[in-house]
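F.,

This is the one I mentioned.
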């Protein structure tokens, strides 16, 4: 069974950032150890990238390969494999290119074979466990609203658990929620 201690927190920012998101993000990054931050591909995120990177957090944009390169993001998170080759070519071997695979084993295997730096699955415990036991490419478990299942996915072998909307719904509670999630992954 994979070691749950290696699982890390991966944050997915809202598609539409609230006006005070920079303050909320700063508080969350102070409260919890975060490995990766996914931001929407919008020029408005330019100041958020160095804010996260200064804390050792990798930053990927949700699509937007050209914008990621222009703004100095560490890479991109793609909705599927069709854009992988162009993203890899533009970002080079050092850029992070992750691919969301839904619940498809086939899509995940194709992304892994193509060279994806990580694959992401919807929250399906058996699928994450299968991938972690057989494959070397890191897996991100997208938790959705199931934050209480973070530890289950860590034990199943996910290298990262991704939290999004559920974390950001209450800006005042987001730091405490992130801290709690981080403690569930150890």
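My design for it:
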């Amino acid at each position: 069974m994979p070691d749950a201690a290696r699982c890390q927190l991966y944050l997915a920012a809202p598609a539409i950032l609230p006006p005070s998101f920079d303050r909320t993000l700063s508080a969350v990054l102070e409260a919890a150890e975060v490995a990766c931050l996914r931001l929407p591909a919008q020029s408005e995120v330019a100041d958020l990238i160095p804010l996260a990177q200064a804390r050792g957090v990798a930053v990927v944009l949700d699509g937007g390969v050209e914008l990621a390169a222009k703004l100095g993001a560490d890479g991109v998170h793609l909705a599927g494999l069709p854009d992988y080759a162009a993203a890899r070519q533009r970002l080079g071997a050092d850029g992070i290119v992750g691919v969301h695979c839904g619940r498809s084993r086939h899509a995940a295997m194709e992304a892994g074979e193509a060279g994806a730096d990580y694959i992401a699955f919807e929250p399906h415990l058996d699928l994450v466990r299968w991938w972690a036991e057989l494959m070397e490419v890191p897996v991100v478990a997208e938790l959705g609203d199931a934050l209480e299942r973070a530890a289950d996915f860590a034990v199943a072998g996910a290298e990262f658990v991704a939290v999004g909307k559920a974390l950001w719904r209450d800006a005042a509670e987001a730091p405490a929620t992130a801290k709690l999630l981080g403690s569930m992954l150890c």
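The two ends are 15 Å apart (CA to CA).

Talk soon.
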